[in-house]
Design goal:
The complex is a heterodimer of chains A (about 140) and B (about 120). With about 140 residues, chain A is an alpha+beta fold. Helix content of chain A is about 35%, strand content about 25%. Chain A has one domain: 2-Layer Sandwich (Heat Shock Protein 90). In chain A, strands 1-2-3-5-4 form a five-stranded antiparallel sheet, with helices on one face. In chain A, helix 1 packs antiparallel against helix 2 and helix 2 packs antiparallel against helix 5. Chain B has a single domain, classed as Udp-n-acetylmuramoylalanyl-d-glutamate--2,6- Diaminopimelate Ligase, Chain: A, domain 1. In chain B, strands 1-5-4-3-2 form a five-stranded mixed sheet, with helices on both faces. Classes of the chains: A alpha+beta (about 140), B alpha/beta (about 120). The interface between A and B is medium-sized, with 25 and 21 residues.
């Protein structure tokens, strides 16, 4: 199987559609015959990261590359950047607004969840420039 | 337990998926925090929640849940019903409060079925 690359623009502050990219990748992985366990891990990590892009980063672009042995997803945004990654990685730490909390998110579980479900998580961030988050899930 | 039994036990209204009420569910979880559903819940087939927005359906989708029940008389918007239909998720609502709804289902044999 040749690597398959899928790209999705993510709109800022569009909560209704947050999760569409994750849903589309989930469906593709299912169609390609990946195991339910792998699909679950990709779906949850991706969904949390997609929500984060909408909540914190004014949207951006998600690029998913699907190979037989691993799935890599890159979330690139031109948002405000993450001032303190160690703090952001702590369970329970959140800078989310009340609006976001009302939606059932913003409990400070996003990045910890992404880390939990990924085999590798890389965050490159610069204040005022943006953040690129890369996750890999091994098959 | 068939979802039709859940409908009966909770006096629930069926918003979509009415033709699939013979689907079986063995476990459920009650949660208003979607991040916790994503973090801690494993292999539950049904989500009870008081939260009403499209992300409830999307969370259920990511966790392969087949049924969402809105508690405390909450009613879904048309957008939520359409999304549930699209994702093949049965959407119910019950006038019963979260604690009691979970208790009724647990008492009737539904388990939590996951690690927390």
């Amino acid at each position: 199987m040749q690597p398959l690359t899928l790209e999705f623009p993510v709109s800022a502050e569009d909560f209704s559609h947050a999760g569409e990219a994750s849903g589309a990748v989930k469906k593709t992985l299912k169609d390609l015959g990946f195991s339910p366990a792998v699909i679950r891990r990709v779906s949850v990590a991706m969904y949390e990261a997609e929500i984060n892009m909408v909540i914190h980063a004014n949207g951006g672009v998600i690029t998913a590359t699907i190979c037989p042995d691993k799935i890599t997803v890159v979330f690139a945004d031109a948002g405000p950047g993450i001032p303190n990654i160690d703090l952001a990685m702590q369970e329970g730490y959140s800078t989310a607004s009340e609006t976001v909390r009302d939606l059932g998110f913003g409990a400070g579980m996003g990045l910890p969840n992404i880390k939990k479900y990924s085999d590798s998580l890389d965050i490159k961030t610069e204040l005022g420039v943006g953040t690129t988050l890369t996750i890999t899930i091994n098959v | 337990m068939k979802i039709s039994e859940v409908v009966s036990l909770l006096n629930a209204k069926v918003h979509c998926g009415g033709d699939q009420l013979d689907r079986e569910v063995h476990s459920a979880c009650g949660c208003d925090l979607m991040s916790d559903v994503l973090a801690y819940i494993k292999d539950q087939s049904m989500l009870l929640t008081g939260l009403v927005n499209p992300q409830v359906i999307r969370t259920a989708e990511m966790m392969d849940m087949s049924c969402v029940i809105l508690v405390r008389g909450k009613q879904p918007t048309e957008e939520i019903v359409e999304l549930a239909e699209e994702k093949d998720i049965i959407l119910l609502s019950t006038p019963i409060k979260m604690f009691s709804a979970c208790g009724i289902l647990y008492h009737s044999g539904l388990m939590d079925g996951g690690e927390c």
